[in-house]
Specification:
Blueprint: E1 31-32, E2 42-48, H1 53-67, E3 72-78, H2 80-92, E4 99-102, H3 105-113, H4 121-126, H5 128-132, E5 143-144, E6 147-148, E7 151-153, E8 155-164, H6 165-171, H7 179-191, E9 195-198, H8 205-219, H9 222-228, H10 238-252, H11 269-275, E10 279-285, H12 288-295, E11 305-308, E12 323-326, E13 329-333, H13 339-351, H14 356-364, E14 368-369, H15 375-379, H16 384-396, E15 400-402, H17 404-407, H18 410-424, H19 430-438
Parallel strand pairs: 2-3, 9-10, 12-15
Antiparallel strand pairs: 1-3, 4-13, 5-6, 7-13, 8-10, 8-11, 8-12, 8-14
Helix pairs in contact: 1-14, 8-10, 10-19, 18-19
Length: about 450
Amino acid sequence: MEPRTTTRRAFLSLSLGLPLGAALAACGSAGPGTAAGGGGPKATYWYLSQQPAEGVRRRAVERFNKANPNGQIAETTFQNDAYKTKIKTAIGAGQAPTIIFGWGGGTLRSYVQAGQVDDLTPWFEQNPQVKDRLFPSAFGAATIEGKIYALPIERVQPIVLFYNKKVFDQVGVQPPQTWGDIMDLVPKFNAKGIAPFSLGGQSRWTNMMWLEFLFDRIGGPEVFQAVFDGEKDAWSHPAAIDALGKVQELVKADGFIKGFSSITADSNADQALLYTGKAAMMLHGSWSYGIQATEGGDFVSSGGLGYLNFPPVDGGKGDPGNTVGNPAQYLSISSKATAQEKEIAKKFFATGLSTDQEIDDWIATGSVPIVKGIESKLAASKDAEWLKFVYDIASNAKTFGQSWDQALSPTAAEVLLDNIAKLFQLSISPEQFATNMNAVIGQ
């Protein structure tokens, strides 16, 4: 099947007739890495830290380097937010790593327009076996004007509403089935001294996930589609204003942990609030499952973690089966790299990624890889119930909306994140938010 192109109209239609898994990357401690052994040329590769994903990425590099002593990968890891700043600066200065890790969409489009990444379409044509193994819908955010500029990698990561089953039992309430239920639960948890929702608001993109779902559930995917299409005053759509207002109602009702604006997601402090029972719920990427299983003691293994898709909003037009997040992660090759570095990168793309070992590694972290034909592996996992949940969300969603800060250009995304922070801090109104964002539509 041919990949879907990321046209202005096709963007949100990463329709998932095929199984998908998920992808907004995590955060962790930054630190340099080097290629082990080998005196030959090296291709540089920067990627995100934070376990357990960092370990999967590192082992893939180690296996490749062991098999290729004369052409290796030299790695460096960064926390999520630090990486986004570093890679933008490096690319602007013509000093990007050979292999550029990203999320596709608007940021990739900006790289393409600036001539910073290579067109990989001819390489995929010469290596059809690479493309044929991966979910076709993962190629949408890698494709700009009909050409493929990135290799989809790793896993599918929808955004999920997690909850602490033990806390719910303690308070004697049920998981929310509607937005109205969410608002009804807030005072019940607060009365028991438990924050209704954990939120690492300092990171800003964590706040964004709330708006992504509310826009979809209230008005359907076409509300943000209009923004993506560059339609004038698209942020002022009545459903958008309604969604912005609902978020502020939740903030005013003390729906989030006190001091959320000073909590960073890079530290995993938001995750700890959920598994220690200080917060009852958390809206986060599906990668959170692996973090909580790794860092939360027996919280996950003892059945303490619950999860569900974001509930519908009463009277909303959106399909409650829709999801948001990232349909894959993506690797591009810097156009500034040497011919030798590019060849090493392409060999890594062809032989070092989505291998059987890496697929097993991702499944072991509680993730659904973007590789076709792995249903039996998922079913055999100790996390089979969770993996089926992610698989079903991704494969049944009529729309899998890419994260806004990746769908938009870097310029518009920064304005978006800044205004989202102000919205959650109640320093601007929904109407002011819309005005500020309408000013950068199409940029």
